[in-house]
Specification:
The chain is α+β, with helices and mostly antiparallel strands and 699 residues long. 22% of the residues lie in helices and 33% in strands. The protein folds into three domains: 324 residues, Rossmann fold (3-Layer(aba) Sandwich); 90 residues; 94 residues, no CATH class. The chain contains 15 helices and 37 strands. The strands form eight sheets. Strands 30-31-33-32-34-35-36-37 form an eight-stranded mixed β-sheet, with helices on both faces. Strand 23 and strand 24 form a beta hairpin. Helix 4 packs antiparallel against helix 7 and helix 4 packs across helix 15. The longest helix has 19 residues. The radius of gyration is 25 Å and the shape is globular.
């Protein structure tokens, strides 16, 4: 969901209403009856002829209207100029003496995977060597390839596992690449298209979790078995070492390499928030780690099992970063947050653990050192006021990159030769929009239950306070993901530079104040997220910044659900809505694609209490022909195999049936990101922003 990417890495990083209570069987029958009464269930057939013909017709209507607006072509070109800019920062990963980077521009629409010697990169004179050109590969093989990432084998990095997606789907083809010959290995490790996870153990051995046919995947659509695959074996000959039940989320394996070896780890995930972690021994047996099921497992560093607690444990409070000795099982606290702080991120080098701490959603970075049984924290004195990201760390070496930015400050890229050195500023990205006169301020709104909810506001402080300012409010509020003050170049160019106000919500359900902030809006408390969102909107209206007629809202994935619920619950509060790749039918979401994996977040529609709550808050079921709504824009992707496009399709069809104004655009490829290449991203940006300008800033 949104910035939550589910694979093995996610496992590492990954008031009830007064309603009628019915029996389990009654609830299941009721849910089945809801399905039977749904006249638009045919739109869930992703690539069915009738469904796609309907999609094409809605797309044509939307584009025909928007292209008549003179701003459409302008916005598309401005967005494309940003996406294709040749002076973008080239981020990368350190692999031995090289830095590896994936790059897209107007000449490389699908992108190139390339590398440069690290030292020349640090000297700002990179000599990029193209290793794999995805445009050339796609044309040669007649495939709509979208690059999804690579995994190299340390310490030599002569072998890589490359992930390629057809059209941007989460399902990928995995192929082994030889860096010496610059070729895919014809008889190497290769896995057909599936929601797979393949990870190195050694040059001749990998962890393999994939689709082996009937019964091999969970109901969430992830692998139910984990195997060890030896070079020269067929997929079917690989040895199974772990499995989970069909109702569980999935199972994954990975290796954490350090100077003298590696830790081989396995995760059995029951749901999105609970999993068992195992350490594989030399006999390929699995030794379970004695840590809580709901812990946020962060890896093993110098024989210390590192974790962030989601609940109190052994006298340590939820939200704390705790280390446990692998041999003695003794625990120690690395960092304990207070009421204003939480752990945003952590990274490991050979000598330190780097902790990114957000205090009222503003980042600071500390380095943690372990000596004689205790931890020492030191502030690294990086820029303050926005968002800091630590990049390309590895417990095999000490050097790493960092970035700093905020909502109006472009990204600065810096480098540490090691955590104790002084930072070297490599370069700063050019400004992509005119921010003169704009200021970022942090405000706090008071939610319905009295909770103080922060949000970032970007505007010229001298604007009139008469409610006349077109304002865009963005939110997410789920899966413990924090919305931070980061440089939104596209929004800056197409909205802020044109005179709009922008607000970024930090509502409950996110991770802004740690596990408790997230857990406050889980399942039958999801309405707390909505109430926080309404409170921010009302705070801006009451302060005269905007008015309902001038206030637009936007969110994607779980944020698409947020804004879908917001406009159906409070249509009086908003003048425009952009719901991107959304969940909307909360009585069937668990039956569609990866939806079952999110029941730990949203609840179980087949549970009597949770199902009744979900139906009462489901945007698809809240729609009423007796209510007036703002004209809403829904966007999605045919190739999204994470959040089913049927959610948006059915919502639009029902709104049309009830006579409500609505607009719809479905990219026919692109996956959950709703775009397969830079040109598609630019077109989608223009569609959404032209709509917002027409609704809130008419010519």
């Amino acid at each position: 969901m949104k910035q939550v990417y589910f694979a093995s890495i996610v496992v590492l990083t990954l008031g009830i209403m007064g309603c009628m209570i019915v029996s389990k069987s009654d609830s299941e029958t009721a849910n089945t009856d809801v399905d039977k009464m749904d006249p638009y269930i045919w739109l869930e057939e992703v690539e069915g002829d009738s469904a796609l013909n309907w999609v094409r017709e809605q797309n044509r209507k939307t584009v025909d209207v928007l292209e008549q607006d003179s701003r459409f072509a302008q916005f598309e070109q401005e967005a494309l100029h940003i996406y294709e800019a040749k002076d973008k920062l080239a981020y990368g990963r350190i692999r031995g003496d090289y830095i590896y980077n994936f790059w897209q521009d107007e000449s490389h629409v699908r992108g190139v995977w390339r590398r440069s010697l690290l030292q020349s990169y640090l000297n700002n004179t990179p000599d990029w060597e193209v290793i794999l050109d995805i445009d050339v590969l796609a044309e040669k093989e007649g495939e709509n390839w979208v690059y999804k990432g690579t995994t190299g084998l340390p310490p030599t990095y002569n072998r890589f596992l490359i992930q390629l997606s057809r059209g941007g789907k989460d399902a990928v083809v995995v192929r082994e690449f030889d860096m010496t010959t610059r070729q895919f290995i014809s008889d190497g490790f290769e896995v057909p298209e599936a929601k797979s996870d393949v990870a190195w153990i050694s040059e001749d051995q990998v962890f393999l979790a994939t689709d082996f046919g009937s019964g091999s995947m969970t109901e969430s659509g992830y692998p139910a078995t984990l195997r060890i695959w030896n070079r020269g074996e067929s997929l079917q000959e690989s040895e199974e070492i772990a499995s989970v039940n069909h109702e569980d989320l999935g199972v994954w394996g990975w290796s954490s390499f350090y100077n003298n070896g590696s830790y081989k780890l396995v995760s059995k995930a029951k749901d999105f928030w609970s999993h068992e972690i195992f350490l594989m021994n030399d006999q390929n047996g699995l030794d379970k780690l004695d840590i809580p099921l709901d812990v946020k497992f962060r890896g093993i560093w110098q024989n210390q099992i590192c974790m962030i607690l989601r609940s109190d444990w052994r006298g340590h409070t939820a939200g704390s970063f705790v280390a446990m000795d692998l041999i003695t099982q003794k625990t120690s606290e690395v960092f304990v947050p207070d009421s204003r702080s939480s752990i945003s991120d952590d990274n490991m080098t050979d000598m330190h653990i780097l902790l990114t701490i957000q205090e009222d959603v503003i980042d600071k970075v500390y380095r943690a050192s372990f000596s004689k049984g205790s931890w020492k924290l030191e502030d690294m004195s990086l820029p303050y006021g926005g968002t800091i990201s630590i990049m390309s760390t590895n417990i095999k070496h000490s050097d790493f990159f960092y970035t700093y930015n905020d909502l109006i400050t472009p990204v600065t890229l810096g480098y540490f030769a090691n955590a104790e050195s002084d930072p070297q500023v490599i370069r700063q990205s050019p400004a992509r929009f005119d921010s003169e006169g704009l200021k970022v301020t942090q405000k706090f709104a008071i939610s319905k239950d009295g909770t103080r909810v922060p949000y970032f506001l970007v505007m010229n402080p001298d604007i009139p306070r008469d409610g006349s300012n077109p304002t865009l409010l963005y939110g997410y509020g789920g899966f413990e993901v924090s919305e931070k003050s980061e440089y939104w170049s596209k929004t800056g160019k197409l909205w802020l530079e044109k005179g709009g106000v922008f607000a970024l919500a930090n509502i409950r359900g996110g991770g802004e104040y740690g596990p408790a902030w997230h857990q406050a809006a889980l399942k039958t408390n999801r309405h707390k997220s909505y109430e926080d969102f309404f409170a921010i909107a009302e705070d801006m209206i009451e302060s005269g910044i905007t008015s309902p007629q001038k206030l637009g809202i936007m969110g994607g994935s779980g944020g698409g659900l947020l804004v879908g619920a917001a406009f159906t619950m409070r249509p009086d509060l908003f003048g425009a809505v952009v719901s991107q790749v959304p969940l909307l039918d909360m009585m069937r979401y668990h039956k569609l694609l990866a939806g079952a994996s999110w029941m730990g977040e949203y609840g179980d529609p087949d549970d009597p209490v949770e199902g009744a709550y979900l139906q009462a808050h489901s945007p698809y079921h809240l729609l009423s022909s007796d209510q007036s709504y703002p004209k809403v824009m829904f966007t999605t992707s045919t190739k999204d195999d994470r959040v089913h496009p049927g959610h948006a399709r059915k919502m639009v069809a029902r709104m049309m049936e009830q006579g409500h104004p609505v607009m719809y655009y479905e990219n026919m490829e692109g996956g959950h990101a709703a775009g397969a290449n830079l040109k598609q991203y630019a077109t989608m940006a223009s569609i959404e922003m032209t709509y917002l300008h027409r609704m809130l800033m008419p010519e």
